[in-house]
Amino acid sequence: MAREKRPPKKEVPMIDTFETLLEDVLKLGVPRAIVVNPADIVFREEFRRACERNACGRYGTNWMGPPAVGQLNDLMARARCYKEGLLFQTVHPVSRSFDMKGMEEGGKAFDEVFRKILRCMKEKYGILDILPLGAGCCRICEKCACLDREPCRHPDDALSSLEAYGMDVMTLARETGMPYNNGPKTVTFFGLILFNTSGE
Ligand code: SF4
Fold it and tell me: 147: which DSSP letter?
């Protein structure tokens, strides 16, 4: 398989990088974004247990979700290898509380913005050491290859989730001043991109 051609690493002063990075992220249609310290992230076993109780109805159906994505302890150790985190949220309209179609459309729009942010970080800033965590199971393929017992079809692009990693997004959002909920008839999705800049 052809290897992805990577852009050369760029040495960018840290504070300038983050300020301009945040400006770029906001320009991509994200209402709120902030750089957080991954050391402040709280992991909760009960969140992961909610996955295991199949609260979302998708347990065991996705390579990037439990149990295939790995044990919570291993995922926590992986997340702790990162020095920076870009936390952002997108807000989408829904017609009522359980408007599944509206939530699905919001999820697709969120994924689209997420990929634009990843592209920007990689191509403009040369940030390649990245762990991207989205909202819910990976939605790249209509049917995850996991269900056919085949390998992931897009391993370089597949997204795991904050839920699978047992991260307490509500607490993180509160500590950064971001609203967890943006009011009636909206659905809010959070994304977190953990990363190391060159030299870290
Ligand atoms: S890229 Fe496709 S096969 Fe891989 S985890 Fe995502 S949905 Fe599943």
Answer: G
- Spatial CA neighbour of 103 closest among 56, 61, 165: 56
Q: Whose CA is nearest to atom 3 of ligand 1?
A: 152
107-124: b or e for each residue (b if 16 or more CB lie within 10 Å)?
A: beebbebbbbbbebbbee
> Looking at ligand 1, which residue's alpha carbon is closest to its atom 4?
152
How far, in Å, is the centroid of ligand 1 from the Cα of 65? 10
Residue 2 confidence (pLDDT): 44
Separation of 156 CA from ligand 1 center, angstroms? 10
Q: What is the pLDDT of residues 21-79, one digit of tens each?
A: 999 999 999 999 999 999 999 999 988 888 788 877 889 999 999 999 999 999 999 99
Please work out whether the CB of residue 158 comes within 6 Å of at least one atom of ligand 1: yes
Tokens of 138: 């990976």
Q: Which residue's CA is the nearest one to ligand 1's atom 5? A: 63
HEC secondary structure over 157-172: CCCEECCCCCECHHHH
How much is the CA Rg of the chain, to the nearest whole Å?
A: 17
